[in-house]
Specification:
By secondary structure, this protein is an alpha/beta fold. The protein is 34% helix and 14% strand. It contains 18 helices and 17 strands.
Amino acid sequence: MSSNPGHPNILIIVMDCVRASDFVPDPAAHYLPHLAELAKQSVRFPRAVSPASWTLPSHASLFTGLYPWEHGVNTMSSLKLSPNIPTIAGYLKKLGYVSASVSSNFLISQEFGLPREFDKIYWGDWWDPYLRLEPKWFGKQTFPGMAEMLRLLRNRGESQRFPILKKWARRHSPLVLKYPFILDVPQHFLEKLNGAPSLADTSWWVEPTLETWFKAQKPDKPSLCFINLLDAHEPYFSNAEVVHGLLGWFKYARIRQDGPPIESKHRKEDMELLHALYRQCISIIDRRINRVVDLMKATGRWENTLTFITADHGQSFGEHGHFFHSSGIMEPVLRVPLWVRYPYGEGGGRISKTWASLVDVLPTILETVGIGGGNNLSGYTLRSLENGPRPKPALTYSNGHGHLGDFIFVGVDRIDPPRSVSVAAYADKWKVVVRSESKGSFTAFDTDNDPLERTNSWEGSDSTQQVLAKEASAAIDMLCASQPAAPPQNVVDRLRAWGYV
């Protein structure tokens, strides 16, 4: 029995870096067994795209129901959300919701303004993607005091308590992206020492933190909970299910993960290995989402919960010469999972053929809880998109073709970054791409018959393509008209520690 028969609880789980093509809950393959069960209770949108190719603007769109050129969080404008733009937590606070944001990703923190209206905000830090550990490794018998130290380090204030860590993050953590085996070796040692599985969690503190928060809430209060799981984010460490023996480990150790892989006869083999490690990381997310669902059930909240399972962007493994994310306008980076489980599993198992986006999450929530405010949003309710066409195209943008660092150092670095962005628009079977450096020249892909985007099918006479080109060009104009703001040095340091710059 639900503890809250009135307003439904809201649960949003973002699987950082998980692309749609690898999120296949096939029960026969035993790849994502828990999610295969959840799929039966959910409405799925296989034509869902993220509004952006990296974390900050896509999460801002999720929280506000606006596109990056509307909420202003993008590399052409600012990296911090304006306090004047309302978010999910602010809307629901008016109805008496209690809320918590629990994010492995440090970008979902107060520094960037995204979760500012949540009651409780927890986030990881630069070490979270590097230290993929099991909670039991930090018990009193193994490393006395380690759990308490990590608790102190987990959130803000670590530079004041431990300034040496800030120095290490700024100067040395990029080495781990260049040579991941630096941390891969000690983590294997810890696994052997503790008998823990090779597939350990990123930010293992997420579920215990969530459990503690739920226990502190009154059962009759509706809850909003946002979770970001970082397990599928680079760097990727080796594990026994993919990397076999000493020779296999040496093949893994030669791969750099700080940018496009060096051209060599091993490049295809290296990409296949990283892709296999990535898929294993997604299987970790499967069991972690199951733990969250079990927690909701244990607190009596699950049945009357509106749940969203999605990703902030995807990941590339050499497609069209791109590596990981933050740039590129291709489907591996933009196409993401989007599932919605309505309270009590209503309509579970349905699959929509309509284009959807992260900007549709907030309108869906507002409709479900019965409050206004959605008229000024760019998204549509997912219920309306289950069977009918999308009234306007779904849009997404990317930082051109370069490294993210080329775009954020306005006034900070010595370079004057190129004002280059790309926007894609989707409708029917078409995807039309417009690039700021070549406006007036369009690229069109048939998403049904050319999913790998090998052939430019632009036809100036096609009415749908013309509409998409017009919408994408208008977004390009708004992005290029904005004035970039230099990020603070602490933000630059954090982005550098994660290999973004």
